[in-house]
Amino acid sequence: MSSDADYFRARAIEERDCAATASEPNIVGIHLNLAEKYEGLVQEAELQPTIRPGWEDTSEAQPA
Question: Domain limits of the chain?
Answer without folding.
Answer: 3-47
